[in-house]
């Protein structure tokens, strides 16, 4: 597979070329989530609440998977920047090995302890609890294949080639659009049908990645498995994993608080989160672009380009996040009614979007800064910020629900995002921008 040199060319053009395929993939994922939620929403608030409840634990699995995705992505990008092909192969092998173990262990956990995980939330709705477990159990094998698809996409991004991942994600979306109504309504599997269609799509995507990647994503038996490479990937990924696991656990604790307000509140938050994900189509693309761009340029010791790329990505992200914030403030109910008709759920979801609208710019600051810190091999910096301020959501929620009810939870989420974005940018100024001045780059 052709390696794209990110250390040459006009910076803003390189960042844009890197980000667009990732944004396209995010758009496809958003479109899939939109279609999936439209079909599931037709089953009612209970069905939405079932998927919302189980998605918390599925998200925990993805958080753990970031151990290998982040670590391998950094090392592969830096190896490419140094033009060390043997190192690149060894890190890809190490990533595949770690991914295999995690996929088997975590996938099995969803199947065998899923009932206990759902029971922890105390939903007190038999139908929601039953469907949530079925959906969670079927996500065991889904998790395995999604882990590899995510790793493969990240490795391709490290090579500076995101177009193949975009095409494969488009295939997955097309399959889901076709299969969702078949399994949910025609075969009458309900909520379980959404999981079955996702499983089939991910298996096909997994196969296509291996076939179309010119062998770069396959395990290289000549390179073997280097224990030191495994350790380095784990060390790099651990801070970000700790951050994401904590983030997910806190969301689970928040979900338990939300559940005390009824299944409509769970459904409202789920729909709000799905709509909010439109923000991450662009900002998530910028995060991935900045990470890959920074990784190669850091390996090549071209530090001026890193700074220029960061500033360019930040400007694009802030403009976009301001537009999204306005949409969340003034168009929330029309957006929500695309998914659901129950008025109480609509009101809850609208309040969620109104609150998080005020934190969108700060989320951009956080994510673009995370991409830079990850690219230079310092994921511990954003991880520390996230650990500290995400943890504040629990006490803030418990305090704010007394005067504001369930809206107090949404306020706590917005406040923590504002704090995270502010400190991420502050640390960039202190730790990175100042360093540029010191070495006169």
TrEMBL record:
List GO terms (cellular component aspect).
plasma membrane
A UniProt-annotated Pfam family: MatE
- Annotated localization: Cell membrane
Question: Keywords of this protein's UniProt record, alphabetized?
Answer: Antiport, Cell membrane, Ion transport, Membrane, Transmembrane, Transmembrane helix, Transport
Does this entry carry the keyword Transport? yes
Q: Give the residue spans that cross the bilayer.
A: 12-35, 47-70, 91-112, 132-152, 164-185, 191-212, 233-258, 278-300, 312-331, 346-368, 380-401, 407-430
Q: Which GO terms describe its biological process?
A: monoatomic ion transport
Q: How the protein sits in the membrane?
A: Multi-pass membrane protein
Main localization (coarse): membrane
- Entry annotated with the keyword Transmembrane helix: yes
Q: What does this protein do?
A: Multidrug efflux pump.
Tell me what this protein is called: Probable multidrug resistance protein NorM
**What does UniProt list as this organism's lineage?**
Bacteria, Bacillati, Bacillota, Clostridia, Eubacteriales
């Amino acid at each position: 597979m052709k390696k794209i040199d990110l250390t040459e060319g006009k910076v803003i053009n390189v960042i844009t070329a890197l980000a667009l395929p990732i944004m396209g993939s995010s758009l496809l994922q958003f479109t899939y989530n939109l279609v999936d939620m439209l079909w599931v929403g037709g089953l009612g608030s209970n069905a939405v609440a079932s998927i919302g409840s189980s998605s918390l634990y599925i998200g925990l699995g993805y958080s753990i998977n970031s151990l290998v995705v982040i670590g391998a992505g950094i090392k592969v990008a830096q190896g490419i920047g140094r033009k060390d092909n043997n190192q690149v192969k060894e890190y890809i092998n190490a990533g595949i090995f770690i991914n295999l173990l995690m996929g088997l262990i975590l996938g099995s956990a969803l199947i065998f302890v899923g009932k206990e995980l759902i029971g922890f939330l105390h939903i007190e709705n038999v139908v929601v609890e039953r469907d949530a477990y079925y959906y969670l159990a079927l996500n065991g094998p889904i998790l395995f294949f999604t882990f590899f698809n995510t790793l493969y996409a990240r490795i391709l991004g490290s090579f500076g080639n995101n177009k193949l991942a975009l095409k494969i994600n488009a295939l997955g979306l097309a399959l889901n659009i076709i299969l969702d109504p078949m399994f949910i309504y025609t075969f009458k599997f309900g909520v379980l049908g959404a999981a079955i269609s996702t499983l089939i799509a991910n298996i096909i995507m997994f196969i296509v990645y291996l076939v179309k990647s010119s062998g770069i994503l396959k395990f290289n038996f000549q390179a073997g498995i280097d224990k030191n490479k495994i350790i380095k990937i784990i060390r790099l990924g651990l801070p970000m994993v700790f951050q994401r696991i904590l983030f997910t656990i806190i969301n689970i604790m928040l979900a338990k608080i939300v559940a005390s307000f009824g299944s409509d509140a769970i459904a409202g938050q789920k729909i709000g989160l799905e709509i909010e994900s439109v923000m991450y189509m662009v900002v998530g693309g910028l995060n991935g672009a900045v990470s890959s761009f920074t990784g190669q340029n850091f390996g090549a010791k071209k530090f001026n380009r890193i700074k220029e790329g960061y500033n360019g990505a930040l400007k694009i992200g802030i403009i976009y996040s301001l537009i999204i914030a306005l949409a969340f403030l003034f168009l929330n109910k029309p957006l929500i009614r695309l998914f659901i008709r129950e008025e109480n759920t609509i009101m809850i979801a609208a309040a969620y979007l109104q609150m998080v609208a005020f934190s969108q710019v700060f989320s951009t600051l956080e994510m673009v800064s995370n991409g830079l810190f990850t690219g230079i091999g310092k994921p511990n910096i954003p991880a520390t910020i996230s650990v500290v301020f995400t943890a504040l959501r629990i006490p803030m929620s418990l305090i704010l629900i007394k005067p504001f009810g369930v809206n107090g939870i949404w306020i706590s989420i917005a406040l923590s995002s504002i704090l995270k974005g502010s400190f991420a940018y502050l640390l960039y100024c202190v730790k990175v921008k100042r360093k540029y001045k010191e070495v006169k780059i």
